[in-house]
Amino acid sequence: MRDSTLRDPLLTSPSRRVRDGSFWVSRILLFTGASALSAFVLFSEFEPGIGKQPFTVGEPAARTFFSPMTIRYVHEAKTDELRRKLALQVPPVYAIQHEPEKRAAAKLDQLGEALGALASPAPGGKQPEFPFEISEAAVKVMLAESSPSEIKRIIVAVLSQVFSAGVLEDADKKRLEEEGRDRIQTLRPESSEEKILFLRNVLSRREAAAALPDLLPESAGKKRAFRAALIEAAAALIDVNLKPDEEQTRERRGAAASSAQPVEETIKRDELVIQRGMLVTAEVQSVISQIQKKNAQREIVKKFSAGALMFFMVHAFLLFYLAIFEKKVLRSFRMCLLVVTVFAVTLILCKLIRVWPGSSAFFMPAALAPLLLVLLVSPRLGAAATLAMTVLAAPLADFAPDLMLAFFFAGMAGTFAALKVRKRVEFLRIGAAVGFVQAMVIFAYQLYQDQTAPGALEAASLGLVNGFMITMPCLFLLIAVFEALFDLATDITLLELSDLNHPLLKRMVIEAPGTYHHSLVVSRLAEGACEAIRANPLLARVGCYFHDIGKIAKSEFFTENQSSKPMSRHENLTPAESSRIIIDHVTEGIELGRRFKLKESVLRFIPEHQGTGVVYFFYRRALDQAAPGESVNPDDFRYPGPRPQSKETAAALLADSVEAASRSLREPTGESIRNLVRKIINDKFIDGQLDECDLTLRDLYKIQESFVHNLMAIFHTRVPYPEKTENADKPDLFKRGQFHKFR
Fold first, then answer.
1. Do strands 93-96 and 183-188 pair parallel, antiparallel, or not at all (unpaired)?
2. What pTM does this model have?
3. Which CATH number is associated with domain 494-714?
4. CATH fold label, 338-488
5. What is the rounded distance in angstroms from the CA atom of residue 581 to the CA atom of residue 584?
6. Which tens digit of pLDDT belongs to each residue from 394-435?
């Protein structure tokens, strides 16, 4: 058997996959995760209501407030004060500028050149220009007392001391002193070198000019006029070389403030925070806000835990329900995922409607989950899903009795209305059932609560709107989405597939007409059998239409399509080769069905209608042709399976065998037909082909009676008509030369 055959999930029995040890683990994890997700959806925006009245700073307290718990809270005012102090402890940052010193040096060079030009004037030369304003008296004194180079050296020495100490703007120095600063942080941008300078040692422009007399070296001499001239020149060259770096200061102070540890204080449980009528201060408002925030967190955790536990119980109930009543659903992880997804989507829609501004809780489409599961999975899931969804949606409804009753009865009504829906227009019936039942329950409860009739009618109308305007449209859209996502087929889709103009069926009519006729008869037999045992007759009919599509590829190798001697195509083949061709129609049918996008529920009829039976004709021939002592392995002539997993595919297996065998009856009387049907059903039962489906012995009896009834209708007998004595001259339509007699 080919590897692809072994790997194809359609050819693997789900009942065998159940024996994997991870089966229950995967289901439990799935349903537990669904419980947590449900709790998250419900309480993700939960807003606990401790102290609905606001406490506004500067206004009298609307009520007395006691702390509901012992709490260590952050004293915002003290914390802010600590942050401010830490920020203020960071000295302001000033960047050292080298440009002022360089400009002063350049101007000194120009001063020396000008003084030299005056000391040794060139014939006819121009009057030299000075780089800064300086009096003529000062120039004359300097020329009279010293050389230009000595003057330059003295001024450079003085300015070097000034710039080394640092020069601030007068306003900056004054501001720092007023702020109580005693130091600044200097930063050399080119080297990132930092240094702390005490403010008393840093000079402002005015202080630098005033300090010049004390900075003159002894080489300046004692003459007052010469010293005054030097001071005048040096003062003109003083400039600010410390510029404030606001960005660095802001970053460092911000970092210092952020490093502050919150100042915490304790309030005991039931301790008075504020008395009614007292003015609300910023500190009191901060304390109340923190208490409410912490209490909200505790409430959210408590609500989430309680919700998760409640939802876990609901999902555990669903899991046990599936294990007892819907084993087929439980075997398929995909179907289990569908179940929890349907509940999650319904819960999300309910939550969205609940939090939508101006919306009413009566608009929540809680009936959507049971409706989807009835249409997509099984009608028996309806009641369980209704009960589960009522509990899941209860927190959103604040556990209001009228809403919970409306959810339950609307879900049950929708479940009954959704049975045997085969046309999309029948969704109107579902919407009407959900809407009217919900409206009646709401109206009755409102009257019971002494509500006026107009008020009760108004509330009931919301339930009616829910059925027609919310539940029905959501159901219509989500059915198509889930069918596509999970490869499912509702009765509506099956009815569309039952059209005999389907491209595959039209191909079968042309390329395998015998198989096409065989499929029609098998579909009628299987449909009747499923009606008798209360299975899905529509699924059986559609599945049987397509169960033999794999024969299209090599139709001439199958007897129903051979017009000449039966089995003539197999005369030159070995029994093993012939059986391989016959068996391959299963895998080829699956591939062809997938190319035409047939649903999985229909594709399952292709392998399961043969089960794991043996191609007995060629197996018998192989035994006859085997040499003495040579053994023949029956597994080489066996279909890949799996055995039928549902009542519908089991009915198809029996119908396929009965239809094929009935063609060999020479005299199809009622007794011979009944004996044939009984023998085939018994053989399949003994062979174990029906071991993995849910058929009972009573079902097999009903199937037998249905087959007998339908086969007798097919092989009905007629009274032979006596032949008339014909006139020799009577025209014969099909005799040559007689056509002119009909003109």
1. parallel
2. 0.66
3. 1.10.3210
4. Arp2/3 complex 21 kDa subunit ARPC3 (1.10.1760)
5. 5
6. 988 888 999 999 999 999 999 999 988 888 889 999 999 999
